[in-house]
Structures are given as structure tokens and as C-alpha cells.
Amino acid sequence: MSNTAPEASAPVALDHEAPSFYVLDDHEHHHEPGSSTMLGFWIYLMSDALIFASLFATYGVLSTAYAGGPTPREIFELPLVAVNTAILLISSITYGFAMIAMQEGKLGGTRAWLALTGLLGIAFVGVELYEFSNLIAEGATPQRSAFLSAFFTLVATHGLHVTFGIIWLVVMLVQLGQRGLHPENQRRLMCLSMFWHFLDVIWIGVFTFVYLLGMLR
Amino acid sequence: MNEATHNHGHHGDAHAPGEMEGHGSRKGYLIGFLLSVVLTAIPFWLVMTGTLSTQVTAIAIIALAVVQILVHTVCFLHVNTRSEGGWTLLAYAFAAVIVLIVISGSLWIMYHLNTNMMPVVQTGMGS
């Protein structure tokens, strides 16, 4: 036993040299809790993008299956869509300002920008529900044609994501009020930032491929 | 701001663990916002006024949407070659490839299925 001790210590010494292949991480050899959250959340968003891809593909395939019902040109109101697009775009920049206030350590500024973002999100969902109720009142219900089924599925899935983003945002406002800008809350706000901006990217696809191309049809 | 958050070699408590490389400056967000306002306004204007022919308009608004998605990705989502050691960009590129395959593949197959099996073919864009 006594003569194996020097041999056992040799691999340990080697282990300290080994991790040098990780060039970017050379200043931290341990993983802090939550260090992989951002990448994990990003991969969730990419899988969410695949859900939307399948819904976009479904809509693309069914977009001319009117079944004798209304066509996009007859039911879409572009001014309303333009207003909604503007609301979501402005909410992106207000969230950006919340992140900047967070980086500067300003709790009040962060909460104020977040609250404004949440109000814009509520306005977006409100306008969308108004549009849906108008369509349904006109008889353009999801049951009317495959085109309308695909339309409601795609747009409402996006709207549902925005709704959950608003709920998350309200939770963050409460947490910020109780505990302030500690690292965990900062991490959560960065995840929500990715989520919110990701939904804006999806909306670019919606207003281009559903509404604008629909009006050209 | 970008540089300040990047060079944190001191394990400072001000930074969240696992922070992505910088979360943009005020300038970056404003540039992204102004670009996306322009890139949103042009397609809406093209469709609402009908300045160009239908086909040119369709191509133009799709191209503008692609550019705007890239602007949002860079300016708002901060995807670049450095964030998370490049894994963010890799996942993004992989997702983009899958999205393109799913959408274009579905449209391609179903269009030909319609052409070959339906008695009446209604073409969307050309008419």
C-alpha cells in the first residue's frame, strides 16, 4: 500500500492541467449554479420555434382552402394589424430599456420599464382579442374553413405565448419588489428578455406571411 | 456597456452567473428599433398602397421580413459568435435550417399533391 501512494497522486496532478482545452473558460474552473440556464432556455426557444414552424407550414398549406368561405382580403383589417405590430415593436424597445436599467443597477427604472412593457403586451393581446371577436361575429369562425382553422391556431398560439409572457412579467415585478435585483432575478429577467424578443421575431413572420401576403392573394 | 460586461475577470457579484456576453447598449437597442420600424413600415406601405405589382410586392415583403428577423436576432436577442461560446449561434443556425426544411418542404410537397390530385387548382399568388 505504501508504495502505491506516489502513483495515486500523479494522476491528480495531471487533472489540474487537463481542462486547458476550454480556452474561453480558463478563468473559472467551477460551474456556478444556474450557469447553464441561459443556454438551456435558448434551446427551449429554438424548440418553440419549431412548433411555430409546423404551424406556419400548416397555415401555408391550408391558406387557400377557403371552402367557399371568406378570403383573407375580405376579413383582414390591415390598420388593426399595423397598430398591433407597432405595439409589439415598442414593447421590444421598452424591454430593452428595462435590461439597460438592470445593468445599471437601477431597480426603479427596471420596474417602470417592465411595467410599461407589460401594459403594451396587454394592449397587444386586447387588440388581438378584439380582432378575433370581430371575425367570429362576422361568421369567420375557426370552424368555417381550413384556412380559418389554421389562421386561428397560428395567431392564437402566438397570442397565448404573449399572455404567458405577461404573467411571467407580473411575477418578475412582484419578485423585484420583494427581493430586488439579485443575480437570480437578473438571470430570470434575461430569460424573459429572450422570450419577449423571440415572440417579436415570430410576429414578424405572422404579419408578413399571414396578413400582408394574405392581402395580396 | 458591451465591453464592461464582457471583461468580468474578477467574479464580481454584480453579474449573474452564466450571463450571456453583454445585453446590449442603449445605442444597440435604438439602432435595432429604428431599423425594425423602417423594415416594418415599408412592407405595410407597399401592401396598403399597392405601388408595385403583386409578385414584386410579395418578394419584397418576404425579403424585408428576413432582414428584420436578422436585425432582431442581432440587436435584441444578441446572438453572436461569442455568446455562450458560440453555442447560441449554433443552436440558432440549426433551428433555422429545420424551420426552413419544415416550411418549404411542406409547401413543396403539398403544392404538388394539389396539382396532381385536385380537379381544380387555385393558384394563390399568380392570379
UniProtKB/TrEMBL annotation, chain A:
PROSITE patterns: COX3. Keywords: Cell membrane, Electron transport, Membrane, Oxidoreductase, Transmembrane, Transmembrane helix, Transport. The keyword Transport applies. It is a multi-pass membrane protein. GO terms for molecular function: cytochrome bo3 ubiquinol oxidase activity; cytochrome-c oxidase activity. One of its GO terms (cellular component) is plasma membrane. CDD domains: Ubiquinol_oxidase_III. One of its GO terms (biological process) is aerobic electron transport chain. It is found in: Cell membrane. Cytochrome bo(3) ubiquinol terminal oxidase is the component of the aerobic respiratory chain of E.coli that predominates when cells are grown at high aeration. Has proton pump activity across the membrane in addition to electron transfer, pumping 2 protons/electron. Heterooctamer of two A chains, two B chains, two C chains and two D chains. This is Cytochrome bo(3) ubiquinol oxidase subunit 3. It comes from Novosphingobium chloroacetimidivorans.
From TrEMBL, chain B:
The chain crosses the membrane at residues 29-48, 54-77, 89-111. One of its GO terms (biological process) is aerobic electron transport chain. It is found in: Cell membrane. It comes from the Bacteria. Keywords: Cell membrane, Electron transport, Membrane, Oxidoreductase, Transmembrane, Transmembrane helix, Transport. Cytochrome bo(3) ubiquinol terminal oxidase is the component of the aerobic respiratory chain of E.coli that predominates when cells are grown at high aeration. Has proton pump activity across the membrane in addition to electron transfer, pumping 2 protons/electron. Heterooctamer of two A chains, two B chains, two C chains and two D chains. This is Cytochrome bo(3) ubiquinol oxidase subunit 4. It comes from Novosphingobium chloroacetimidivorans.
